[in-house]
UniProtKB/TrEMBL annotation:
Family: Belongs to the citrate synthase family.
Residue ranges of the TM segments: 337-360
PANTHER family: CITRATE SYNTHASE
Superkingdom in the source lineage: Bacteria
Keywords per UniProt: Acyltransferase, Membrane, Transferase, Transmembrane, Transmembrane helix, Tricarboxylic acid cycle
Catalytic activity: oxaloacetate + acetyl-CoA + H2O = citrate + CoA + H(+)
Entry-linked InterPro entries: Citrate_synth-like_lrg_a-sub, Citrate_synth-like_sm_a-sub, Citrate_synthase, Citrate_synthase_AS, Citrate_synthase_bac-typ, Citrate_synthase_sf, Citrate_synthase_typ-I
Organism of origin: Croceibacterium selenioxidans
Pathway(s): Carbohydrate metabolism; tricarboxylic acid cycle; isocitrate from oxaloacetate: step 1/2
An MF annotation (GO) of this entry: citrate synthase activity
Pfam families: Citrate_synt
Protein name per Swiss-Prot or TrEMBL: Citrate synthase
SUPFAM superfamilies per the UniProt record, alphabetical: Citrate synthase
Length: 401
């Protein structure tokens, strides 16, 4: 029998908290979530208000600096980000090493990790100027990196950033534009894309953000830390859920098949879960899903398109919310439930969905990383464990086993 006191020391408290359901890993002044009430605030501002009135550049400034910028500060910040949108030319060679059918997230893990090999003049984390430059570089280069991953997958030439455009319009042009042909960014699509970026900008200590913080706590450079965050985000229980949710909705196909999938989600012998439903923190409607649902309608109207999958999603939501199982377990649509429908209407393949999430979440990761590095009480992250293996025993020579 293991003596816990002997293993973990006589003093202090030892907690065993798988999945960290009730353990705060840090102090943070960035994002507040009230999961019971369905409230999300960034630096105190409700997500609904930011999505309605702000822009992704403004929210990025807010997350990094703590306050909303005035017009001059916003112009300056946007210009600074614009200065860093280009990617080192040699990185294009790096892309060409991947298979064409590689998942964009696989490419992004590699390319973002490789940034430290190209921008090592901003990797001294003890220098605030280096931290600032690397933060700006990451936010600025992610649209270029994501767009290049897309272009590579469809076999089209890469497009250089056009810095006369906004952050979001520039991304859309690099993704959907073709060299030597004019590309008009639809204002409603630009607005919707920008709003989707705002909705994904940060979400306190979720799995990928905790990964970034844990990687950063060892003193690893910011590019390596963000690459770690991208790897974690990719999982279907986290950022990969937007891709999985749309695939699920397409598989359901028509509203008459919804009930069958609801029954499957409730069956404990079936690993199937309703993707885009449920959340570790929200035990109420995810406020981001509310905005996302509204944005679907706006995009459909602007592009004069529709998608039967939206009707399936609306009916699925209604049936699930009136079902005892989902009611008792407080499972509501999360940010990923509707986002895929919009992204698909905009022309993105499902494999790009999580890449777009990573692009936007980079702001949160970078802000959280900066907050952690600037914290004088910061320590290397080092969770303990509850050891369940054998107690000490003598080595047995192989011939006696
Ligand atoms: N469908 C069916 N049942 C579900 C679902 C779901 N989507 N989500 C949770 N449950 C059930 C679980 O089976 C469990 O039931 P039990 O108490 O009978 O064992 C109970 O609800 C609690 O679920 P947990 O997995 O313990 O909750 P946890 O907080 O660990 O997981 C998670 C949260 C991972 C988001 C989960 O709800 C899930 O897998 N959802 C689907 C994937 C998804 O949409 N992820 C995106 C999250 S948002 C984001 O990352 C951006």
């Amino acid at each position: 029998v293991l003596d816990i006191r002997k293993l973990y020391g006589q003093t202090g408290m030892f907690t065993y908290d798988p999945g960290f359901t009730s353990t705060a890993s840090c102090e943070s002044s960035l994002t507040y979530i009230d999961g019971e009430e369905g409230i999300l605030l960034h630096r105190g501002y409700p997500i609904g208000q930011l999505a309605e009135h702000s822009s992704f550049m403004e929210v990025s400034y807010l997350m990094l600096n703590g306050e909303l910028p005035n017009s001059q500060e916003l112009d300056e910040f946007s210009r600074t980000i614009t200065r860093h949108t280009m990617l080192h030319e040699q990185l294009a060679t790096f892309y060409r090493g991947f298979r064409r059918d590689a998942h964009p997230m696989a490419i992004m893990c590699g390319v973002v990790g490789a940034l430290s090999a190209f921008y090592h003049d901003s990797t001294d984390i003890s220098d605030p100027h280096h931290r600032k430059v690397s933060s700006h570089r990451l936010i600025a280069k992610m649209p270029t990196i994501a767009a290049m991953a897309y272009k590579y997958s469809v076999g089209q030439p890469f497009l250089y950033p056009d810095n006369s455009l906004s952050y979001t319009a520039n991304f859309l042009r690099m993704t959907f534009g073709v060299p030597a042909e004019p590309y008009e960014v639809h204002p409603a699509v630009e607005r919707a894309m920008d709003r989707i970026f705002i909705l994904h900008a940060d979400h306190e200590q979720n799995a990928s953000t905790s990964t970034v913080r844990l990687a950063g706590s060892s003193g690893a450079n910011p590019f390596a830390c963000i690459a770690a965050g991208i790897a974690c985000l990719w999982g279907p229980a986290h950022g990969g859920a937007n891709e999985a949710a749309l695939n699920m909705l397409r598989e359901i196909g028509t509203p008459d098949r919804i009930k069958h999938y609801i029954e499957r989600a409730k069956d404990k012998n079936d690993p199937f879960r309703l993707m885009g439903f449920g959340h570790r923190v929200y035990k109420n409607y995810d406020p981001r899903a509310t905005v996302m649902q509204k944005t679907v309608r706006e995009v459909f109207e602007a592009l004069k398109v529709t998608d039967p999958v939206f009707e399936t999603a609306l009916q699925l939501e209604e049936i699930a919310l009136n079902d005892d199982y989902f009611h008792e377990k407080k499972l509501f649509p999360n940010v990923d439930f509707y986002s895929g429908i919009i992204l698909s209407a905009m022309g993105f393949p499902t494999t790009m969905f999580t890449a777009l999430f990573a692009l936007a979440r980079t702001v949160g990761w970078v802000a959280q990383w900066n907050e952690m590095i600037s914290d004088p009480g910061q320590k290397i992250g080092r969770p303990r464990q509850l050891y369940t293996g054998p107690t000490e025993r003598d080595y047995i020579p192989i011939e006696k086993r």
